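note to self: dont lose this again. the chain is below, predicted strucutre after it. 275 aa total, dont forget to put it in the shared folder this time
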Amino acid sequence: MIEDFLATGLSEVEEAVRKAAAVEVMPRFRQLAAHEIVEKNGPHDLVTVADRRAEEHLTAALTRLLPGSVVVGEEAVHADPDTYRALQGDAPVWIVDPVDGTRQFVHGDPGFCTLVALAHHGVLHASWTFAPALDQLAVAVRGRGATLDGRPLAPGAPAPDRILEVATSHPDYTTEEQKRALLTLRTEGIRPRPCGSAGLEYLAVARGELDATAFSWEAAWDHAAGLLLVEEAGGAQLTREGVPFRITGGNALPFTAARDEATARRIAGLLAAGA
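---
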């Protein structure tokens, strides 16, 4: 079912993603009224009318393209946490973050994106990362590689003498144990910095512009699209236990995605030592 759909449906998904951004997101970029912005779990966790409308748009469009599929979207799960269980069900699942980087979106910063991934039985099959304000679209299909605006992505390994740039979780989203783990990255040869939009950080890794990420939360909508993008570009990802991250949950956190396997193992090893 999934393979048949991916053989013919990639362009239709791209069209749906672009249309949702064009209709629901971009007209509100730098045009939001105060009442259209709401705090969910604190000042760094915002939702806007654009998030909600874009998710509704994508939910209707994507389930229409693939009958029998369901959607796990950030805003729907916030309203009903039981929705997240669909990741462990038998139906194909669209994993949707309508505006990844809502804080940036609210502040008029173009560093936000729409994330869509298609999974089945916990396996990621395809993903779309669309940055509408930057007009960039990255697509990954399992076993078929990753592209940015139609051009293949291949980050390669960092130079041996390079100081590794690593994007890390904001401290507000970390436990004390995770803070200790992330502090291990403050060592010679590594330069950690706070992350922006998770989706765009993954794209930066897939492009070879960022060496690795180190994230301490596991919400599938933030990670699914980017993890497949990095893997299909030739990178690697590991939890601090040295095993791949599972979108269905239960991961040892923090975890990393990196330009190559050696870098992923180095970062995961440091995170494990500090946990």
